[in-house]
């Protein structure tokens, strides 16, 4: 089976007032096409740091990440931004929606950035909002919606460009368990329907049970558990 993600000897250090903090060094990891995996680990272990590297939101100190066969950190910033917009969908714990804009406008932004016309972007955003069960709420702003509904908007936004890789950082961390479970079921259903490869980062074992494989991040490494 081919790999959507190959990570080679990845290192991330953050500068501190004195010296540096090494979050991980020589971290290796592969993600098979079509798999849905959880990365677990206690708070502060480096899960968000790792996901941000996979999603090109940050740069490693050393090491390589191949996304869909491309050595992503060898590219310039413009090419990286293009790869991120085209191939990666991100879901965050706190949704990261723009409060002044309606549900469909939030979902349409990745298309507008690509140069898609507003009317076409609206049609596609509304279609995707239907797929996440929000057809009645397309004109509402995030503040008029529940946490679970806001996360559904964020999921639609993450998928609007038909990414290959879906990255979710504690996607249910801000939701009650019943709502969280519905969000996880939705992620799993869309993962299959849209042929995604997906990573869910979580500190919660119940969340990890929704995934095909679970990895534990500790002491700077990832182990299959
Ligand atoms: N921008 C940053 N600058 C300095 N240290 C950071 C930064 N981001 C994260 N860290 C540190 O890196 C470590 C890993 O953080 P993080 O990846 O957020 O962990 P997790 O998501 O597993 O809770 C923590 O010790 C955190 O304080
Ligand atoms: Mg985190």
Question: What does this molecule look like?
Answer:
This protein is α/β, with parallel strands linked by helices. The chain has one domain (3-92, 147-224): Rossmann fold. Helices cover 35% and strands 28% of the residues. It is built from seven helices and ten strands. The longest helix has 17 residues, at 177-193. The structure holds adenosine-5'-diphosphate and magnesium ion (MG).
Provide key terms for this protein.
225 residues, alpha/beta, Rossmann fold, six-stranded mixed beta sheet, 7 helices, 28% strand, binds adenosine-5'-diphosphate, binds magnesium ion
In short:
The chain is of the alpha/beta class and 225 residues long. It is built from 7 helices and 10 strands. Helix content is 35%, strand content 28%.
Topology overview:
Blueprint: E1 3-15, E2 20-32, E3 36-40, H1 47-54, E4 62-67, E5 70-71, H2 77-87, E6 88-91, H3 103-114, H4 118-131, H5 147-159, E7 165-169, H6 177-193, E8 197-202, H7 205-208, E9 213-218, E10 221-224
Parallel strand pairs: 3-8, 3-9, 6-7, 7-8
Antiparallel strand pairs: 1-2, 1-4, 4-5, 9-10
Helix pairs in contact: 3-4, 3-5, 4-5, 5-6
Bound molecules: adenosine-5'-diphosphate and magnesium ion (MG).
Please work out how many helical segments DSSP would assign. Answer: 7
Which structural class fits the helix and strand makeup? Answer: alpha/beta
Q: What is the average per-residue confidence, as pLDDT, rounded to a whole number?
A: 96
Oligomer: single chain
Described by the principal axes of the CA atoms, the overall outline is globular
The CATH fourth-level homologous superfamily: P-loop containing nucleotide triphosphate hydrolases
Strand order of the largest sheet: 6-7-8-3-9-10
| End-to-end Cα distance | 21 Å
Low-confidence segments, ≥5 residues, pLDDT <50? none
Overall radius of gyration: 17 Å
What sequence of helices (H) and strands (E) makes up the elements? EEEHEEHEHHHEHEHEE
CATH topology: Rossmann fold
User: What is the total number of structural domains?
Assistant: 1
CATH architecture: 3-Layer(aba) Sandwich
Proportion in β-strands:
25-35%
CATH top level assignment:
Alpha Beta
Sketch the major β-sheet: 6 strands, mixed
């Amino acid at each position: 089976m081919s790999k959507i993600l190959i990570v080679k000897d990845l290192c991330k250090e953050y500068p501190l007032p004195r010296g540096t903090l090494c979050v991980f060094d020589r971290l290796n990891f592969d993600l098979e096409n079509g798999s849905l995996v959880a990365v677990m680990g206690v708070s502060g272990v480096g899960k968000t740091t790792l996901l941000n590297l996979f999603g090109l939101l940050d740069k490693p100190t050393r090491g390589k990440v191949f996304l869909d066969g491309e050595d992503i950190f060898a590219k310039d910033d413009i090419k990286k931004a293009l790869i991120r917009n085209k191939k990666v969908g991100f879901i965050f714990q706190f949704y990261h929606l723009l409060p002044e804009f309606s549900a469909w406008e939030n979902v349409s932004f990745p298309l507008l950035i690509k140069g898609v016309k507003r009317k076409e972007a609206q049609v596609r955003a509304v279609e995707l909002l239907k797929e996440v069960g929000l057809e009645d709420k397309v004109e509402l702003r995030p503040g008029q919606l529940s946490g679970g509904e806001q996360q559904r908007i964020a999921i639609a936004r993450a998928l609007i460009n038909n990414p290959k890789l879906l990255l979710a950082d504690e996607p249910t961390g801000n939701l009650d368990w019943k709502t969280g479970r519905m969000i996880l079921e939705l992620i799993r259903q869309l993962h299959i329907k849209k042929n995604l490869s997906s990573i869910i980062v979580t500190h919660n074992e119940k969340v990890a049970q929704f995934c095909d494989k679970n990895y534990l991040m500790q002491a700077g490494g990832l182990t299959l558990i």
